[in-house]
Amino acid sequence: MVATGRTRQISYERRLERTAYLFLAPAAILLLLFCIIPLIASFYVSTQDMGVDLSKAQFVGLKNFVKSFSDRRFLQSIGITLRYTGIEVPLQMIIGVLLSALLTRNSVINKLFRSIYFLPVVTSAVTVGVTFQLVMHSNIGIFTYWLKLLGIPDANLLNNTSTAIYVVIFVAIWKTFGISAIILVSAIQNIPESLYEASAIDGAGKAAQFFHVTLPGIMPSFWFLLMTRIIGSLQMFDIVYTMTGGGPSRATTTMVVYIYDTAFNSLNKMGYATAMSELLFGFIMIVTIIMYSIMNKTSE
Amino acid sequence: MKKLIALSLALALLLALGLPAALAEGEKTTVVFWNSWTGGDGDALQALVTKFNESQDEVFVDMTRTTSFGDMLQTSLPTGEAADLVLLNCNDMNKYDGYLRPIDDIWDATALEEADFSTAYMDMAHKDGALYGIPFQISTFMMYYNKDLLEAAGIDEVPTSFDGWTEAAAKITALSTEENPVYGSGLFYCYNGQNQSVIQRFGTDYMIVGDEESGFKANLLDNQAFADAMIWMKNLYDNGDNPKERDIDSMMAAGQIGLMTNGGWLKGTLDASGINYGITRLPTATGEGLDEYALGDLNCFMLTTSASDETTAAAYKFIEWWFTGSGLEAQEVTQNVDYSGITPNAEWSISMCYLNAYLPTVNSTEYQAEEILVGLTPTETAQVQMFSAPGTLFWSDVAACNADYVEDWVFNGPTNPTYDDVQSFFAPYQDDLEGYIADYYG
Amino acid sequence: MTSSVQRAKEPVNYQIKRALKYLPIFLVLVLFAFLLLAPLVWMCLGMFKNDAEILSYPPRFFPTANHLVENWRNVVARVDMLSLTRNTLIYAVGTTIPGLLVNAMAGYAFARFKFRGKNVIFLIFLATMMIPFQVIMVPLYLEIYYMGWLNTFLGLIVPKIASAYWIFLYRSAFHGLPKELEDAARIDGLGEFRIFLQIMMPLIKPTLITVVLLSVNNCWNDLLWPLIVASSTKMRTLSNGLAMFIGNRTSEYSLAFTAAAVSMLPMLVLYIFGQKYFVAGQATSGIKG
Questions:
Q1: How high is the mean pLDDT in each 10-residue block of chain B (442 residues)?
Q2: Is C79-244 in CATH node 1.10.150.120?
Q3: What is the CA radius of gyration of chain C?
Q4: What is the CATH number of domain B27-138+297-375?
Q5: Which chains reach chain C with 3 or more Cβ–Cβ distances below 8 angstroms?
Q6: Are C279 and A189 in contact (CB under 8 A)?
Q7: DSSP category for residue B414
Q8: Smallest Cα distance from B440 to chain A, Å
């Protein structure tokens, strides 16, 4: 009796396990084919001295990795990337959580605000870069002109080594904030209404509900956003590339911008560029594993 | 939800089946042509390509212009799926070494003759004795000036020396008012081509001098002309006569810049803006020898290894037409010259104010009527390109180094710099350049 | 009598009070809306201006004359907007719809099942997000080439279907659902796939809508991938057509802004349409009530 019950239990778990693998299979096969295999190939590239012509590659072992540690531009780009991530991610998360909490109800006015906040998401990075270059232009920019009318003359934020990075941060939040907002709004809307009703019966106010129902309810999505924002910020590329080109004087040259320049504007540096991105990859991986284990602990 | 999915699937299917794109034309051989000429000059180029496609019924040139040109080439060359024909800076021959098709047989296959091309440029289109490119465009840098601003500042003669540039810039900047700020000088700190076009006119020579046999040498230190150029530049920024701004073109178009350096691609924007501008040769340090050399990079028609014999032959036809074709009508994008009867090559070069390497064009009456171009057409010994001596493997690294040090200097260099400041400031960059030489040739 | 008057007054007072309480929130929302909207509106107004007006000084926010017709004519004369839109639509829909199922299944497995190697597999999935695309670009291209998929919609779409980003998002969405739901369904004898498709999927409708919106939008603005795997002229997508007006050396702002504004429109319609499907609370109404 007991024995059969146990085998049934095991076979049931086995069956569920098999189902899980079946559910994973399509995505796993596609990711294996189109992400992981190329990823492994790129590990090979990072040990080569290689340009465009793949047949002329020369094996150099770990030389590319060693070189990067004495490359002052690479080291500078690490600092810039960390600073960018350290400011952009917390700002984006705080604004995202607060505003999405304010916008959850499906009133007409909230729908209008949500549409407005989402609008910049649909723009392409190329247009965004050009638009902000013109809007923030030190002389003919409309933003600069408005500041002048408000009594703040000679604002030249984009062409200043200490402020340019903040413009990039602003534009990055401007462009992606709508994504954070709708993901959080949808997460809040996934929370069962009954939880709010229950807490209302317990006499909880709006603020208490926010901290005791809303926040715990959106925790999985909050972690998702936090992790993907960090991963994305460490790979910051497009807005910098189209708006500042990494300048002035490399003040906005993030790691990926530097890697990209090395790979595509130089002769034999595909291998070196790949080695640097493996280092970036390794760093992101470590950050992610740490965050993943924290996430698992908090959600249990 | 299901309805939404079904609807969008049906729509996609309908569009996929219902609207087949029929671009490749019947019996014609299609030549796939990629380049990075986006923006206004790309439109002018596309217009000429269309003219070619309509002018005959054997070849169809399918042109794609894109800002991701390098990415496209880099991925597709190894598989042989790249474009047949590309426009490349001749210094990139080294980068795409192994994927470019030697085209020495173009002289037999077409009516073009090697002797008709300026040897100074033809040398740059060769590598190891084989021909890889036919000169398409020499992206010549010129001085642009705002006639109205010069007049308002009481400047009768356009400056011919860099000291003159500084003086004129101060006078023009003095016209600035609260309502309409203007600047006499318009150097872009972030644009290496522009900066080098003035730096090299100080007589600095290339940043990397020498040749493969006797060895290359970095040329930033112990170089009086280079120090003069950097001091001149820094003072313009520090005096407030030159704005610290990435986008000077737009300010020029808004009528806020007196003097600047740029290439012919700016003309379209300025024409559209309606400002009253002129173009002339860039100054030199002494105000003499203005014709000595013109600076700009040479871009060539090149064929890739993705081209078959058939598409190569077809591409040759297009190149031949580029230099000898006729039947053009005046293009909308060009101004004040009657182009009927001149070749596409001549039209391109005259309308954009680019030097030409094709001697029949150079000798044509239309080209000869363009004073600036005629004066500048280089001798065999003149400096024909920027940044590094022709033949250096790492031209793009040198160009990137230029952008680095100019920005660093403009933002972090000392005010009122001296010759010694220049020496100490640029020592690390000299080391970088020496490092490249060691990397590539060591 | 007094009491009835007070009664009539109270709701009004209450309303004013509530409005006053809401005012600071409203002002914050308006401020953000202004910051987000101003550059965008300025860009869209660019389609009514010509280049001279965009680059004039002092800068003007609103156009003084209408150049829209002229700009639009120039745009369609240079690029085939119809074919660009068609290709973009096929790319976007072809990637999003199969992706909806494939990614949701994987996210569901991570959220609702226990299996060996779960953490490791999840981290490997995540790892695919961590390497800049430019680095795997060349190997990926070679692979598509060997499969004979270059310049086909298959080559364009299939590699983009599975995405760790969406899998992660689905995992978060499924994670929050109560466990009793599937247990009840299992007792009812439903198969695992039907539980997933008929019970669980409808419960995360807000997330599904979000994914559709963002995924379509990603394809809509994707620049590099369509260009390298589908480089032929007839496969070109909107964002690539648009990028042609913005060059390294010369830009035609009025045309770029016109094309950008027009190519944004479908996304805007999709978003407003999609908003209808965000309905709070509805998802869980049948469970605990």
A1: 56 48 63 89 88 92 88 87 94 89 95 91 90 93 94 93 95 91 93 92 91 90 95 95 92 93 88 90 88 83 96 96 77 54 87 89 87 74 80 88 93 94 95 91 82
A2: no
A3: 25
A4: 3.40.190.10
A5: A, B
A6: yes
A7: P
A8: 9
